[in-house]
Amino acid sequence: MSDTQHESVRLAPDPSPGLTTVGGDTPVVSPPAGRRTRRGIGWPARLEIALMTGPTLVVFLSFVILPVAMAAYYGFFSWQGYGPAEDFVGFRNYLLIFEDSTFLAALRHNGIIVVLSLLLQGPAAVLLALLLNRQIRGQTLIRVLIFVPYVISEVVVGTGWSLMLHGDGVVNAVLGKIGLGWLQSEWLSDPKIAIWTLMGILTWKYIGFAVILFLAGLQGIPEELTEAAAIDGASYWQIQRRITLPLLGPTIRIWAFLSMIGALQLFDLVYIIWGQYIADTAGTSTMATYMVANGRTAGEYGYGNAVAVVLFVVSLVAALFYQRFVLRRDTEGAITGGRN
Known about the structure:
The chain has 340 residues and is an all-alpha fold. The chain has helices at residues 3-8, 43-74, 92-99, 101-132, 139-151, 154-164, 170-177, 191-219, 223-231, 236-264, 268-273, 275-282, 287-296, 301-325, 328-339; strands at residues 19-22, 26-29.
């Protein structure tokens, strides 16, 4: 081969990573392997998102954010509920709230209700759910009877229990008839007993919701796991402890969150059974009943709005704290699973 032939020969360079050739001449850039090209969202998709989220966003802003903002605004005024709010008092309402021993007692009652709700309703609901998850006679009837109190109106529940637990009510009468007169008591007015009476009523009414929630969680546990453990020689309670309860953990934590928020905002049953004034002396007042008694009823709407803001902040802080330290691994798992 001649020198001119050597010079005319050109070694084609290897295409660099990410380049392909068209017809052997023109390099074309291709995206690296494993990396997706990002595509912008077109106007039709943006319009669809706006139409889907717009109404929900309007309702949320109108009925959640706006009332909270207005309550925070009026909380800085001494306002009687009519006319423009002109008597600006700054943070005086908020300072008076935390200087009032009645509010601090109500805050303490809310804390007690939160703790006792978790301790009483949680274990009882888990045991009932485990029982009803097995094939037993009358299973459907028992489920209905447990869940019925939850769907009954709070007004009906409060009125019924207040009549039965009155000093001359059915409960004391029955105790006297069966020879247990020494157990008769002032269930609603005795400060040492009233809080436990309230917890009994709350447990009776809301345990059905927890049981149904736990039963739904139990349906998602594969039977193969419990069957394999039983074949390996594990007892029934060992299976529940080592397999069922850990897998039921996310459901239990969600229920605990809902129970905690509901206990912090408890109002209706206390207001119906004890009223706004008796609840203070009986030791069952809550932040919500305090807000109504010292806000609307007293004609101090500015002060009542300040109490509402404090109640909102307490509930929000509790929710964020719980989500940060308890629900974190559940939410992170859901987000990770979605990304994968």
